[in-house]
Amino acid sequence: MLLYSSTCERFYDDIKSDRIAEIVNAAFRREFGRDAGKGEQRSWHNSLPRFSWACEKAGLGDQGIIIEYQLPQSSKRLDVMLTGANDDGQDSATVIELKQWEDCEATDGDSIVTWVGGGNRDVLHPSAQARQYVTYLADGHTVFHEGPSPVLLNGGAYLHNYTFVKDDPLLASKFDELRAACPIFSHDDQESLAEALRRTVGAGAGNDVLERVLRSEARPSKKLLEHIGGMLKGNDEYVLLDDQLASFERVMAEAHKALKSGTTSTILIRGGPGTGKSVIALNLVTALARDGINVRHATGSRAFTNSIRKIVGTRASAQFNYFNSFATDQPGSVDVLICDEAHRIRSTSVSRFTRKDQRSGKDQVDELLDVAKVAVFFIDDLQVVRPGEIGSADLIVEANDERSRSRYDFQLAAQFRCAGSDGFIAWITDVLGIEDTANRVWSGDDGFDFQIVESPELLHEMVSTKVADGITARMTAGFCWPWSDPLGDGTLMPDVQVGDWRMPWNAKSDKGRLAPGIPKESDWARDPNGVNQVGCIYTAQGFEFDYCGVIFGNDLVYREGTGWVGQRENSEDRVVKRGGEAFTDLVKNTYRVLLSRGMKGCYVHFMDAETQAYWESRMGTDAHGVSKNAQ
Questions:
Q1: Which domain holds residue 279?
Q2: Residues 256 and 328 occupy one common structural domain
Q3: What DSSP string runs through 129-193?
Q4: Same domain, 82 and 192
Q5: What's the pLDDT score for residue 384?
Q6: Which of 173, 323, 363, 577 has the fewest CB atoms within 10 Å of its CB?
Q7: How does pLDDT run across 223-254, given as a tens digit for each residue?
Q8: What pLDDT score does 580 carry?
């Protein structure tokens, strides 16, 4: 997706007619069904004319220009890309990030500064942002790395309102390597920017190169579990972007500061499904361990933690724990504690199986804060699916501030699930009545394959076909059927039943042996044979697939004039049924999690006809994903 592409000559005409912001916003409205925010429109109005002056100084004319180009499998958009030929006559492209900054301050971290204009918050150094975009594109688009003559890719940043001062934090020596790779240009450097543009794209027509870029294919997204092993061996498996890298750098800086001076701090990193929380968490485990720092990773998910332990092997598995693992550990005994899926924090670590000498008498959030010099919480308040899970940003902030620990907050935005579509996540959140969003109707034009399927047989066939083609896909369902133990011969009862169609839940491996070909629940997300069982919320949460099939059960239905109604009698989740008035909200969150497991597509079968009719009424496409306007 992009909002503008043309030649530089046409770009100048649109600038001189004072229409460029209007044109880009009109494209935004077509893509998203609403106007861009006032701040974004203001940036187009202010930054693009200033950039056009540098392009004209460079003598660019028939070079190509792309504005607001969406990075593959992400909702992040780069500001400008120019295409042409470099001084050696090679096809070339240059990414330029445009900044309205006027001031910033120095801070800890190898790639971050504090942007004063944004309310004193950690942001990436502009060179770091440009370099990450260049790296991400080079890794993710075939035009930049395949074939006999891949397009060369360069990057930089233009701070058109900024004037460098003595000892400017942006020019600190620690950023020398970054600035060499992706230079930054200030208000006073327009001629230097023009020279850089001449050198990288000024030697040839750029329209053909622009078409090459637009026609190129995005490399399939990397799935988290497929790359954990390589990540923990020190391989660079993921490129972190913007707020992802800024939060990563802040944790690294706080960890080294804690070791040096004994400080304590808490980093709260919020983000919805697919914003890269677990990616950052596992990158941090790798980087901190490499630096000799005592780092532990914890979750509230047995399936997720056991999957990681199996991948990393016995030697490294001790680093991966549960939230209830720290009750008797000494305060400050862990340098950095990475709490992934912190919304699954419980009120206490005590259960009926906990020995008396293993009980701390503290709330679980207090145990986690006290054990760590640096505590990092990755959280999505809308993923709480059990009444005993009380993790929330407010809970962590309150417990942290009682201890007077330093605190840093980050909000992740870029989507790596759902084909990079913020819109799909926002839409299902709105349809389910969890939060009002701007995405009232699903337009179906985000490149994400969403379909309503008329039978569970067809749903399973669609999912199985993907798996047969080497694509990751799984079936999931609301918890509307009993979950039986394995039979004596190790086979599974086909508990999930819709009409004449039946299939078993994923296995309870701790309740008996399993027959050959049936994966344990901790392997269900990775083993291709997992396609033959239906995953429940507790097995699926925390994982992602290319495609996910969902059976939307009768535990949550929509009724005209009433809205969403939770039906306890149709739920087999004994814990959630005891949630009192929270039952409906917990089941809504459950379906939001299940519907957002797919990175490229989601197929849904509704058991209730009125619920399906309501869902279809909120779609600008038919049930098969075809635009209603095209019919």
A1: 225-411
A2: yes
A3: HHHHHHHHHHHHBGGGTSSSSPPEEEEEEEETT----TT-GGG-GGGHHHHHHS-EEEGGGHHHH
A4: yes
A5: 87
A6: 173
A7: 545 555 555 555 555 678 889 999 999 999 99
A8: 86
CATH number for the domain including 610? 3.40.50
Burial of 241 (0-12, 13-18, 19+ CB in 10 A): buried
Looking at the structure, do residues 146 and 205 belong to the same domain, yes or no?
A: yes
Token readout for 576 is 């959630």
CB 620 within 8 Å of CB 629: yes
Average pLDDT value for residue range 624-629: 54
* Total structural domains within the chain: 3
Q: Which two tokens stand for residue 195?
A: 């020279």
Domain boundary among 180, 215, 250: 215
Residue 583: HSE in the Cβ half-sphere, 13 Å Cα cutoff:
22
- pLDDT per position as a tens digit, 353-402: 777 877 888 999 999 999 999 999 999 988 888 888 888 999 999 999 99
Pair (403, 454) in one structural domain: no
Q: Answer whether 7's CB lies under 8 Å from 61's CB.
A: yes
pLDDT band at 414 (very low <50, low <70, confident <90, very high): low
407 with 422, same domain: the answer is no
**Is the pLDDT reported for residue 306 higher than 90?**
no
Q: Is 559 among the domain residues?
A: yes
Distances (CA, A) of 343 to 206, 275, 305, 325, 479: 49, 15, 15, 17, 20
With 50 as the cut, is the pLDDT of residue 631 above it? no
Given this model, what pLDDT does residue 21 score?
96
Residues 497 and 383 in one domain: no
**Residue 220 covered by a domain:** no
Distance separating alpha carbons of residues 144 and 94, to the nearest angstrom: 12
Same structural domain, 445 and 380: no
Q: Which of 63-72, 81-90, 419-428, 528-537 has the lowest mean pLDDT?
A: 419-428
Instruction: For residue 473, give both structure tokens.
Output: 């896909």
User: Which CATH number is 297's domain given?
Assistant: 3.40.50.300
> Do 239 and 120 contact (CB within 8 A), yes or no?
no
Farthest-apart Cα atoms in the chain, separation: 79
User: Going by C-beta distance under 8 Å and a sequence separation of 6 or more, which residues neighbour residue 293?
Assistant: 255, 256, 259, 335, 336
